[in-house]
C-alpha cells in the first residue's frame, strides 16, 4: 500500500487523469485480499472463510456445517471472533470491531479533508501562475496521497482487515497533502511578491501630477 505509486509507475498504468491537478490516478477495486496480507490475523493463520464462512451448528442435533452466506463476521460473533478470542462475549467482540472501524473511519475523513484542501490550493496556485515545476511536484504528491486514502474507501472492512497499515497509510496521505498545501501556498506568496515588485518601478516612473 505505502509504495503503491512506485508500483504503478513501474507498470505505466493509471485509470484516469484528475480534472483539477492533472494527477494520474488509479481507481481502487475492493482490495480485500491485498489488505489482509501481512495483517495480524493473516499471520496468525486466520483465513477469509474463518470470519465470513465459519463452521456453525444448527438444528436440534447441533449439526455442523459451513456457512455459505458470506456475511460480515459482526453478524456471527459467537462463531467467529469469540471462537478464537475465548472469554469474549458477543458484546466485547462487537466493541473491538467497532473501536477499530470508528478510529480508521475518522482517519479516512481527515484524509479526505486535507486532500480536498490540497486540490483547492492547487487550483489557486495555477490561477496565480505558479511555475510548472512546482505544479509538477504538487501533482506527484497528489498521485502519492490519493491512493493512500482511496485504498481504505474501496476496502470494505473500514480498516479492520489490517488496522496497522490503514493507520500508517492514511497518516501518510494526510501528511503528504499538508506538505503539498504548504509548498503551494509558499509558491503563491512568492509569485504575489514578484508581481508587486515588478509593478513598483512602473508606478515610480509615472509622471508627477500637476
Shape: elongated
The number of helical runs is 8
Beta content comes to 5-15%
Fraction of helical residues: 55-70%
Rg over CA atoms, rounded to whole Å, is 25 Å
The H-and-E topology, N to C, reads as HEEHHHEEHHHH
Overall structural class, as computed from helix and strand content, comes to mainly alpha
Query: How is the main sheet built?
Result: 2 strands, antiparallel
Q: What integer is the average pLDDT?
A: 87
Low-confidence stretches: none
Strand order, sheet with most strands: 1-2
**What is the distance, rounded to the nearest whole angstrom, between the alpha carbons of the first and last residues?**
70 Å
Count of strand segments: 4
Q: Features of this protein?
A:
elongated, 61% helix, two-stranded antiparallel ribbon, 210 residues, single chain, mainly alpha, 8 helices
Amino acid at each position: 500500500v505505502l509504495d503503491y505509486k512506485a508500483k504503478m509507475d513501474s507498470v505505466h498504468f493509471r485509470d484516469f487523469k484528475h480534472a483539477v491537478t492533472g494527477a494520474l490516478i488509479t481507481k481502487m477495486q475492493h482490495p480485500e485480499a491485498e489488505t489482509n496480507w501481512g495483517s495480524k490475523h493473516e499471520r496468525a493463520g486466520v483465513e477469509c472463510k474463518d470470519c465470513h464462512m465459519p463452521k456453525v451448528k444448527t438444528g436440534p442435533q447441533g449439526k455442523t456445517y459451513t456457512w455459505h452466506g458470506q456475511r460480515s463476521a459482526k453478524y456471527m460473533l459467537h462463531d467467529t471472533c469469540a471462537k478464537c478470542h475465548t472469554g469474549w462475549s458477543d458484546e466485547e467482540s462487537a466493541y473491538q470491531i467497532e473501536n477499530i472501524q470508528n478510529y480508521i473511519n475518522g482517519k479516512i475523513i481527515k484524509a479526505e479533508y486535507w486532500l480536498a484542501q490540497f486540490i483547492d490550493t492547487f487550483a489557486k496556485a495555477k490561477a496565480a501562475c505558479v511555475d510548472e515545476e512546482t505544479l509538477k511536484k504538487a501533482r506527484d504528491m497528489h498521485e502519492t496521497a490519493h491512493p493512500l486514502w482511496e485504498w481504505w474507501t474501496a476496502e470494505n472492512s473500514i480498516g479492520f482487515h489490517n488496522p496497522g497499515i490503514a493507520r500508517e497509510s492514511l497518516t501518510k496521505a494526510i501528511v503528504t497533502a499538508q506538505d503539498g498545501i504548504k509548498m503551494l501556498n509558499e509558491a503563491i506568496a512568492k509569485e504575489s511578491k514578484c508581481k508587486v515588485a515588478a509593478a513598483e518601478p512602473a508606478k515610480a516612473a509615472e509622471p508627477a501630477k500637476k
